[in-house]
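Table 4 source record.
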Amino acid sequence: MKKKDNSKEVTDFQRMLKVLLKNPFSVAGMIILVIMYLMTLFAQFISPYNFTDMHKYLYLPPTPIHWIGPNGNFHIIPFVYGVKEERNPITYAMEFTVDKSEIYPIHFFVRGESYEFLGLFKTNVHLFGINPNAHGMIALFGTDRYGRDLFSRTIVGGQVSMTVGLLGIAISFAIGIIIGSLSGYIGGTFDLIIQRFIEILMSFPTLPLWLALSMIIPPSWPSTWVYFGIVTVLSLLGWTGLARVIRGMTLSIKEKDFISAAKLSGQTRLKIIIHHILPNIMSYIIVVATLSVPGMILAESAMSFLGLGIKPPMTSWGLLLSDAESLESIELHPWFLIPGLFIIIAVLSFVFVGDALRDAFDPYQYERK
């Protein structure tokens, strides 16, 4: 009998996996998310430069990679051209132009600025780069007003933007699940107080509340502390909606016969919640968690864009977007919008995966098919 139940469980898992893999958007979203998290994990190794290093090439446009030389010859090793600075005869402003007389091959596993690989040991090996003495640089996304490589800053900034959602959801969901389940199961005065408190928190407008909570974070804190402070702020604001839903589901489940049987057997409230109620709503929690991560990413980006979140020298996608806050800046330096594309891609990927998970966990999905 036990063997039959196990085979049925495997079959249900296979059905859910089939629903996930059948949706091309969910497959694409999962692949993109895996790539993005790997890029952020090995960000300093992938980055050709240190994200805080300033170079002399200010506002350098993205440097294209070439395989065809100026004479029409094909090069097996890709290369970039040199860069020279010239004065515009009309505006008299200094501008960068391509110097096709100089070719700099792109090499892999080159030595450059030192960094700590995954925080374990110090090294100076980077995935790719060019000769450090070259009259130019390999700036795939261009440079900012201080000459910092935007590609390196974008990849490293993903370490904040992509992880703040996971940590924030983990904390806010822990709070929401505990408070929501206790409120729904205990009921009475405890439930009344919790629900009124949640309504008070939800009545505050989001932006002023962000501003008030972010002011609590001292400006003298190191970057790591500021990061965890931002995660805490987002978590304290993100648990209320989930808590109310968990409460409603708990109110429905606690009237079931198996809960009554657990009470008669002498099980405690905590044990009933952990072993009987939460497993029955776990599929909903997983789906909502996946769909809530994009909201956390957007919230962090908005806070950093407005100057309420991550501060330099730390960086994030929202902080990088603050350089493109004016139409003049976008017109002159359109590559400043590239971090915004990463936000859009990450958010859409999480939404696609979350929608597919919702379909996969739908109990009526298999009956319809």
